[in-house]
Amino acid sequence: MRDDTKQQENILSGLKRGETVLELRGITKKFPGVIANDHIDFDIKAGEIHAILGENGAGKTTLMNIIYGLLQPDEGEIYIRGKKVQINSPLDSIALGIGMVHQHLKVIPALTAIENILLGYPKLGRILDINKAKKEVSELCKKYGFKVDLDAKLWQLSAGEQQTVEIIRALYQGAKLLILDEPTSVLTPPETVKLLKSLKAMAKNELAVIPFITHKLPVVLEISDRVTVLRNGKVVGRLKTKDATEKILAKKMVGREVVFRIKRSSVKIGKTILEVKGLFALNDRGAPALNGVSFSIHEGEIFSVIGVTGNGQQELAEVLMGLRKPTGGSIIFQGENVTNYSIKKRWDKGIGYVPSDRVGVGSAGELSLVKNIAMDLYHDSEFVSRGIIDYKKIKKYSEKLISDFNVKAPSVTTLASHLSGGNLQKLILARVISRRPKLLIADLPTHGLDVGATEFVQNKLLDLKKDKVAVLLISEDLDEALSLGDKIAPIYEGKFMDILSKKNASKEKVGALMAGVRRG
Amino acid sequence: MDMITLILNASWVFLFAALGELLNQRSGVMNIGLEGLMLAGALSALATANITGNPWIGVAGGVVAACILALIHAVLSISFGVSQVISGTGIWIFSLGLTTYIGTEFTGASKVAMEANILGFTPLFFVGLALVPIFWFVISKTRFGLRVRAVGENPSAAEAMGINVTKTRYICVLVGGIMSGLSGAHLTLAHTVLWSPGMTAGRGWIALALVIFSMWKPFLLLFGSLFFGTLWIVGFYLQSVIPNAPYLILQMIPYTATIAVLVLISTERFRKGVRTPAALGKPYYRD
Amino acid sequence: MRPRLIRREKYGAFDNVKIVLISMVIAFAILSIVFLQANIDPFKGFGQIFNFAFATNVGLFLTIRRTVPLLLVTLAYIIPAKGGLWNIGGEGQLFMGATFATGVAFALPDLSPILLLPLMAIGAMVGGASWGAIVGYLKGKLNVNEVIASLLLNYVAIVLVKYLTWGGPWGDPKGQAESGPISVNAMLPKIGNTGIPPTIFFALGFAIIIYFILKKTSLGYQIELYGHNPKAANYVGVSFLKISLATMIIAGAMAGFAGFHQLSSDTARLRADISPGWGYYGIVFALFANLNVLAAIIVSFFLTGFIVGNTMLQINLGMNFGVEELFIGVIMLCLVGGQLLKRYRISFKKIG
Question: Does C315 contact chain A (CB < 8 Å)?
Fold first, then answer.
């Protein structure tokens, strides 16, 4: 398996500063209905850190996977050190000296750091010489400024340290070109500083690094020598970082196309429904996700939280609904402190939640539509008497719901997994909204939906204003957030950068705030 | 001295089977049919030894029989994704039936046995003793052991790193089979040199408990098998000496102690120190 | 035209019937070999089995009688399975049921059967339910692996029974490995000459009630939702602890009642072999029935019949000792092996 790539093994050894390590020419990749990468040219030299910047959906992931060998381009060529290559699988790219550190770390928590580093290393001897390996790895760490306790079990390490372990593994196994997928998304600010130092040390040692970054403009400016901006699959700009400013980059990322549609809402904003004070929470990895969020939402108001996924929005929604315990702060709903209420109690009190994970959390694919709609009704006295569910009533109710919300399905007994994304979202929305919640938390409700479904969902949210519902809308789409939101709060690293009223929010302003640009 | 020999031999029945199952479980595969594998090994060892007149061919026979059953378990649960619990249960019931039926010819004392010629113990005994540090070494100090541990924790990550999960698990299950065969052979050719239907009498379940009790650590397993072995023998001894004594409560200790350990390692605090192989019992689907 | 196994795309209820049939066919093929090896005509052999189990009065009544505990332990596996939990502890729960029933019987030997029997039944269900509750609590609160926990508890229960009976506090003064007899009042009456106690109606009744609970009630819905998608269930406020406890308690009660039945209609004494591993058979039966409660009634009846019919093999056909266990073992293995057909189907298409 490794024999035929032995010749390529040495291709990246002995790199000299300034040599072109990787060159992409005209890389194009199409998926049904979308051109993910459109004739992308790119090059990176030894000793350079060349960042690729772009929003979600701009084509970064596809490009990354092509370089790493998980996907093959439809058109275009890849050159390593001037030689044309075919990368048909990750094994090829590893053999070529390309290493990748994924955003969702592929580590084994119960093993130690050094064990994780050695795992899968083809040159590993039958009997482990941990001491020798530790020595070699320590030298590597010294060279690049990594500080990791090699004997610690991986679950004991912070996310940042785990990422360091993955980087070390790639380097130890011979990588000369390192691809980093959203490297700073799991890091705290001090960890980010450490990482930048290490990347600079790697560049000094003639390695080449490509960080793929979304929206973290300050980081891009700090860390890279050059930056290429992607938008809608195309390269829209390539600059030397010293010539770039946050403003310039933000403009390029976001573009100057037709601005958002303004919807005149004649609904009066009413009393305070939700008040959140100083909310703190950790994410699944134990790292801080919410760092002191405070805001309030009123009747008939849509509060748009806009940000790149991974900045704490999901945790915010979960804490509000009771799916996650906050580490600090309070939640006051209609005057009541609900911070410690159970999930069921919050539903009963009038909070509703449409989760971003339609399939994994919001629905039960193997059950019928009726049973999915019953998810909210199994404890509702209107449909349940003395513990027995009146399925006939639920069925009728479901039929009405499905027609009201335009859910295209053969019948109410169809399985939820047979619905298209848009119809499933409409179903979940229908289920939650028909319970008449006073506060609706909608997490990425239009994510992955086609134009028609998106418009439908957005209009339904606007309708809620008339019903005096308070809506917390979590969105990744600037246009959506700006057109629907009465208040717009860009979120970055677990904090609201600002809370803007619709009047004061412009696309560029919000785009910049989302990307971490401080005001002024 | 006799009592000690008895206890050590009794403990080794647990030791062999549990060591094999330990490796099994480290790779993420649970074999509930352990009792059945031991029975098959026991009968086959005794039968083969009596037919050939050679106890060591008997041991080989025991190993082969147990391995065949282990292979069935591997094929069903690893390659075809049948639940490990179901597969193990089926194999156990099958083995119980098969050995009861075939064993009628061999019921009673065995005419052939292993000679206890080294300090009063058979050579197989010392093999067992040596296997403890060997297992420990393989698991913690070899490339193979590292792979096994990775596979038992996070098979998809391991696969992504180029490790063949299926192959690794098959090897572990077969080793488990070999060890169960040795356990059975030790039982019928060294410890209680006879056959009677269902004679393992639940010791396979104790071995299963032992693996968990030892928290998947080979040296703890050695200690645990001595502990459980002592309880086993002392229980029976007490019965003959003091009738109506609550000696059977002693027999409960292996199980209750293991439950205590199980609960302990599931609590937050303890999880920091010891972990169940995360992928234990879950089938791994490549597709 | 070699047959190959190919990964299935989907799997429906009707496919399960096919799996059942294929498993049985293979089982019968293997058993035929056993018959031939014992110089018996397989048809004659199978004829003996089925004839005795279903066509003779003695056999049929025995089949019905034995279906009671086997149906109940099958239910004991199915209920938690619906909620995603693996209850391997049916055997131990049965033993605890028998133990509690014995306790009640020994405490009130002279109470009239009309009062004593229901009390024993309730005691048995409480015993089994509490045994199941231990597992349910550990799983719900601490996420302790319920397979291992219930398995270990099985053996704790068996040893407990051994302790009580082998020369222990309830031991038979004559020194047998069983308890003293329970009083006549504690024995279940039989219907006419059939030897079938009224517990058969209870077993069927329980099955129907459980079917109803699972299908129509809010609890049943929550169990089903949790079994299909625990995250979704959690998201709408279903409590994992509640599901764990509820399913394990009901399951334990079922198995406990089976223990009561065995005690009061069969053995009349508490013994360590009051169940020869039926708790485990229940698991395989449940799979065979594709976790469907109504199918479980039919499946357990027929498979019990097969097991009952096996008892004739040694007596009537002179086969060796152990043939019963062998036959049961072969059937179980084939049923288990047939499970692979849930994910793979046999294809006779040419390899392209």
Answer: no
Whether B51 is covered by a domain: the verdict is: yes
Task: Return the structure tokens found at A344.
Answer: 């069921």
Does B58 reside within a domain?
yes
- What are C31-89's pLDDT values in tens digits? 899 888 888 888 888 888 888 888 888 888 889 999 999 999 999 999 999 999 999 99
Specify if B240 maps to a domain.
Answer: no
Q: What is the pLDDT of residues A259-286, one digit of tens each?
A: 334 455 566 778 899 999 999 999 877 7
Count of other CB atoms within 10 angstroms of residue C258: 36
- CA–CA dist A237, A231 (Å, integer): 9
- H helices present in A205-244, as ranges: 217-223
The CATH number of residue B91's host domain is 1.10.3470.10
If one counts the domains in chain B, the total is 1
Q: Do C322 and B251 touch (CB under 8 A)?
A: no
Tell me how far apart the alpha carbons of residues A26 and C173 are, in angstroms, rounded to a whole number: 93
Question: How close, in Å, is residue B28 to chain A by CA atoms?
Answer: 13
Q: Is C9 on the interface with B (CB under 8 A)?
A: no
> A207 near A46, Cβ under 8 Å?
yes
Instruction: Flag whether B261 is in a domain.
Output: no
Q: Say whether B141 and A120 touch across the interface (CB within 8 A).
A: no
Task: Compare CB distances from C235 to A323, A367, A388 and report the shortest one's residue.
Answer: A323
Q: In terms of residue numbers, what domain contains B162?
A: 9-204
> Average pLDDT of chain A?
84
Is A343 in contact with C222 (Cβ distance < 8 A)? no
Which pLDDT score, from 0 to 100, does residue A446 have?
Answer: 87
Check if the beta carbon of residue B110 is closer than 8 Å to that of residue B194.
yes
Counted across chains A and B, CB pairs separated by less than 8 A come out at 52
- C342 pLDDT above the threshold of 90: no
In this complex, which of C159, C322, C335 lies closest to B101 when CB atoms are compared? Answer: C322
